[in-house]
Amino acid sequence: MAAIRSRILPGSRERTSADKRRQQLGKAVTVLLCIVPGMTVFLLFLLIPMVQSARYSLYDWNGFGPPKDFVGFGNYDLLYHNTIFRSAVQHSFVIMFLSLGIQLPLSLIMALMVGRGQLPGKTLFRTILFVPFVFSEVVAAIIWRYVLHPSSDGMLNVVLGNIPGYQTIGWLSDRNVVLYSIFAVITWKYFGFHMILYMAGLQAVSKDLEDAARIDGAGEGRVLRYITLPLMGSTLRLTVFLSILGSFQQFVIIWILTQGGPVNSSQVISTYLYKYGIKNFKLGYGSAVAFVLFAITLVFSLGYQRMLMRQDYGDIT
Amino acid sequence: MGKAVMINTASLKSSKTVRRLPGFAVRYIILIALCLVVVSPVVTAVLGSLRTTGDFLSKPFGLPQHEIQWVHYTSILESRTFWQSAQNSLFITFGVMVLNVTLASLLAFAFSRIRFFGREIVFNILSFGLLFPVVVAILPIFIQIRSMGMINSLWGVIFPLVAFNLPQSVIILRTFFRAVPIELEDAAYIDGCTRLGFFRLILVPLARPAIAAVATLQVIAGWNEYFLPLLILNDPNKWPLLLGITQFQGQYSTDWAKVMAYVTILIVPAVLFYLVTEKYIVTGLTGGELKG
């Protein structure tokens, strides 16, 4: 077979050397035609700017003219001692932990409820629960700004006001509540996405194995714990990974809901970057913020993969 | 033996359905409750746009009490800025979709069907891009776009968006292209097809569902992008709809009904688009594992 292939296929035909060279040239041209346009856009608008920003972060630069005032790690030092930035980092982590601890389990439960058994109407449920994912974050945030409006005429306060003894809560104006309100909106927008991924993972789990366990007398809980979830391992890992990255990248929803307020109590790294770096024309300082954000996501994503690979390895031995 | 097994599984199945009936009821209650939570803010927004703001605020749920207020819609739809923004949104969406699908399928073709020196390295560099969200890179992109003189140009929004979504699209398409049997490729070459001919005449038509999935995801990404236009487009004439609405919201922050009318105008096409393309969205997100 290989012999036949090598005789027919372009690029490896044994003919005259001129022919061969023409073949090789043709292949090179094809490869260049395919690779160059895409990679040019990728390099110009993603990779080169990213590398440049590492350099800018070492300058005190307002963005006009070339960066000249080299400050070394001065920007990072400023960041490290800035209490607003520190609390912004904290808030980003809070969003991340809430996503992992509440949003993902909720999505998993929903996927189990919708996706398992021949539940009549399951496609309809899936369609409805997934709808928020296609809305833009801007639209989602504006709708929820009305729902969570702090004054007594916000929708949620009106609805809850029917409960006797209910005191109006400033969902977006109370410094102790605002971060959780934001998290609720993020969950509303994104849990359908994770649910879809889980449903796909569930579909790949062998029904025979689950049935075998049931025949052996395992209850539904044990089937889930010992058969279904372990078999969904790769999906679970993927969603955790996406959830971590997504939490740190959250910007639009928070910006439109609160702009990081009140008094920075919902400021996260990305909103801090926009407010104190870009809007104030401190591009060197902003680049340092961006770099810290990038470093956190990089460390998390690489470390996470590493850790889980080791764990998988331990399972095998 | 065979019969016994069949009977066994049959009885197991029927007993299972019986056992599951109360389970279904509980599931329905929970699911319907959750669907209500998911949908009610949206429904309120749509209904609110048909009422007066005063009405809307005193009773968030409810049908129009006086008569249906089309005023909010007519005043938005009559404004020239709205149509200008709609045009800009369409241009960005279409540009992102066409450029991304074209570049990504060419790249995926080279990565999946041609052996060449450095293939893995180039592919790894590209997939490294998955780690960069637009938010992290927004500042360097802004500086780059500015130095290329593309501030206030819709292309300054389109190109970075294409670049940032390229890795994801290439990875989806590469998986699908790989699944096309090598025999087809051989047959095409025997029949005198060139490589690009094989790509255009055989691979692309065969991978149509995957390409549709990628295109759909790009349409959503382009239509919904907010951050890049916010930074790169200063001229209100260049704004897409989403920037228009935030501006609008600031202007009329007390006039909720009008804001909700704008929101509804944006929601309706999104939902219609979703209902038509749900299959492709699901395929795209789950790599074809979950049928739409």
3D structure, described in words:
The complex is a heterodimer of chains A (317) and B (292). Chain A has helices at residues 2-8, 17-56, 74-80, 83-115, 122-134, 137-147, 155-160, 178-204, 207-215, 220-231, 233-249, 252-258, 269-278, 283-316, and strands at 59-60, 69-70. By secondary structure, chain A is mostly helical. In chain A, 74% of the residues lie in helices and 1% in strands. Chain B is mainly α. Chain B has 13 helices and no strands. Chain B has helices at 2-48, 53-58, 71-77, 80-113, 119-128, 134-147, 155-178, 182-190, 195-206, 208-224, 227-232, 241-251, 256-286. Chain B is globular, with a radius of gyration of 25 Å. Mean pLDDT of chain B is 81; it is low at 1-14. The chains are: A mainly alpha (317), B mainly alpha (292). At the A-B interface, α2, α4, α5, α6 and α7 of A face α1, α4, α5, α6 and α7 of B.
Mean pLDDT of chain B: 81
Helical/strand content category of chain A: mainly alpha
Number of helices of chain B: 13
Number of strands of chain B: 0
Strand arrangement, major sheet of chain A: 1-2
| Greatest interface (CB-CB under 8 A), with counts per chain | A-B, 87 and 92 residues
Sheet with the most strands, sense and barrel status of chain B: none
pLDDT < 50 runs, ≥5 residues of chain A: 312-317
State the order of secondary-structure elements of chain A, H for helix, E for strand: HHEEHHHHHHHHHHHH
What is the radius of gyration of chain B?
25 Å
**Strand percent estimate of chain A:** under 5%
How would you sum up the major sheet of chain A? 2 strands, antiparallel
